[in-house]
Amino acid sequence: MSRYRLAIDMGGTDIKTGVVDEQFRIIRRHVIPTGPDRPFEVVVADMAQAAKDVAAMCNLTFKDFPCVGVGVPSCINPHSGLLVFANNTNWRNAPLREELRKHIPIPVYIGNDANCAVVGEAMAGAARGKKDVLMITLGTGLGGGLLMNGKLYLGADGMGMEPGHTVLVHDGIECTCGLKGCLESYGSVIALIRQAHEAMEKHPESCLHKDMADNGGKLNGKIIFDCAIAGDKTAQQVVDQFLEYVANGIGSLVNLFRPEVILIGGGICDAGDYLMNPLNAKLPKYVFASDIIGCPPAIRATLGNAAGTIGAACLDCM
Amino acid sequence: MSRYRLAIDMGGTDIKTGVVDEQFRIIRRHVIPTGPDRPFEVVVADMAQAAKDVAAMCNLTFKDFPCVGVGVPSCINPHSGLLVFANNTNWRNAPLREELRKHIPIPVYIGNDANCAVVGEAMAGAARGKKDVLMITLGTGLGGGLLMNGKLYLGADGMGMEPGHTVLVHDGIECTCGLKGCLESYGSVIALIRQAHEAMEKHPESCLHKDMADNGGKLNGKIIFDCAIAGDKTAQQVVDQFLEYVANGIGSLVNLFRPEVILIGGGICDAGDYLMNPLNAKLPKYVFASDIIGCPPAIRATLGNAAGTIGAACLDCM
User: How far is residue B155 CA from its own chain's centroid?
Assistant: First the structure.
């Protein structure tokens, strides 16, 4: 048996598979389209085939690995192996592990994609050597995971945790999940874009208008941060308020979890210090008794998209 | 060595000590005033003496116990033994365990009072046999604790968790802790009384006015619930809105922790079904995908004030 690990990282767009070595590096990658509108069994067969294929590219077969780890952007029950609920595919209580095992002759571990990301960062990224880690991913949505004493926190039914769907504003903006006032509705990139659009209506002088037009009329997180960094007052106010929301949401989680460190992932991290410095400056304001008991630092995740693949490959360690 | 356990449950008003038997019953109690304005060393000497005294009442000495468990209403670091921060005494980084050990010749375990309560309920109360339990105490403040896989959740520095100081309303009402919009500022008994006073100003016809006058001009949680149960529309609206806040706060915690069960403690529980039925009816509205993944039940804690003593006595099991 080789000392390599095998991972399937399923997203709404792509199924990424990878072979990970002992140093937790992805030594071979393979990507196929997800085709999320196809029947569950067909997508699962493709996932297994893609894993088999990436192994073959390394002259390996399933039997060369101790197990396969699978990350999916869904509510997962790792105990029963059910994919309980997936927004982007509309699957409900789908027997993911059982279906995968029809094609894969070795043990299969499944996990939520946000949980895989924190596992990846813990094994090979910014959280290496840390035992109590809160990771927040600021992407299209707002996701996250928690390591407690070196182990992934899953809750009684395996469906913890959903930091994006904790409350930030009671009776606030309706979230895509149907709840109201969720952190995700204020602290995700989708929310940032909405906040920028609202500000742009009041500020026709803002550079955001021109930069959006130059981008085919579409705003994104990078444009908003770039305008702010370039000195546009409207963009700066939008980013500042956005970071207040994010800091309040994260501070609230710190009051529960008291992690050693907070990892920030997601595309927005490319803004670097322009994101992390004000976020760290704002955080203590939202942390209970931070002047006495302190506030853990927020740092950037380092693996980017690879975190999900590496984390899935290491799910059996959790 | 006896099979009894020894506990010190320190509050702002009283220091309660107790001897607990193998069935987790308090077989002897002893209560002395805390005198929180006195020097730390003097209060701690009294705590140790009160523990010695309650043991003596059972014809036992310290040497008859494996350890002493101590609950305090403070931020505690159970690893270092420091009482980091106590609101009601103004102590900061006080060496609680070290000071106790000057008087107590056996191991000393220390814990936050809300954490002791969930340990007590897990050992001998409503959470017996459960492994993943969220307890919320609706008292003067709003506190709570979490059992994860049968163990007390403490966070990296031992100072988790503070559910009362998670956010419910971004930039909302200022909390006693200095943060804004904390769940405690909307879901504690103090908050309920504030909400009732606000409603009374608009509703001179409410029975709340008379019942408050009959109580020497002071409102309390029981009066508000009693008026609501008796059919007073204003009191009913106050209670209904209060329970929306509580349900939203707890639902948000469910989205993180996914416990098997939610225990509700605190004096307000005396309202019984009038509290628990609407709370359970409202909860799913605030739980992510509750129609698909379900919502754990909220049930009443059963030990009342004894939970803190029994839990302190069992801290060594956690």
Answer: 18
- The label of the residue with tokens 């930039």 reads B171
pLDDT for B159 equals: 86
**Residue B242 touches partner A, C-beta closer than 8 Å:** no
Residue B98, pLDDT score: 97
Any B CB within 8 A of A259 CB: yes
Looking at residue B62, what is its pLDDT?
97
CA distances from B314 to B58, B118, B135, B244, B305 (A): 19, 11, 17, 34, 15
Q: B255, A161: Cβ pair inside 8 Å?
A: yes
Q: What is the pTM of this model?
A: 0.93
Long-range pairs of B35-39 with CB within 8 A, sequence gap ≥ 24: B36/B12, B36/B88, B36/B89, B37/B89
Quick check: B289 and A75 CB within 8 A?
A: yes
Domains of chain B and CATH, by start:
5-124+306-317 (3.30.420.40), 133-300 (3.30.420.40)
Task: Sort strands A68-72 and A142-148 into parallel, antiparallel or unpaired.
Answer: unpaired
**Tokens in use for A286?**
């939202």
Q: Quote the minimal CA–CA distance from A121 to chain B in Å.
A: 18
A257 interface with B at CB cutoff 8 Å: yes
Q: Which residues of B touch A296 (CB under 8 A)?
A: 156
Kind plus residue range of the DSSP H or E element containing B27: strand B26-33
Contact status, residue A58 vs residue A22, Cβ threshold 8 Å: no
C-alpha–C-alpha distance, residues B283 and B296, integer Å: 9
Could you report the per-residue pLDDT of A169-204, keeping only the tens digit for each? 999 999 988 999 999 999 999 999 999 999 999 999
Is B289–A153 a contact, with Cβ atoms under 8 angstroms apart? no
Kindly give, in sequence order, each residue whose CB lies less than 8 Å from that of residue A198, ignoring residues fewer than 6 positions away: none
What is this model's ipTM? Answer: 0.92
Which residue stretches of chain B are H helix?
40-57, 96-101, 113-124, 184-187, 189-202, 207-214, 221-229, 233-257, 273-282, 290-293, 306-313
H or E stretch covering A17: strand A14-20
Chain B from 194 to 233: CB within 8 A of any A CB: none
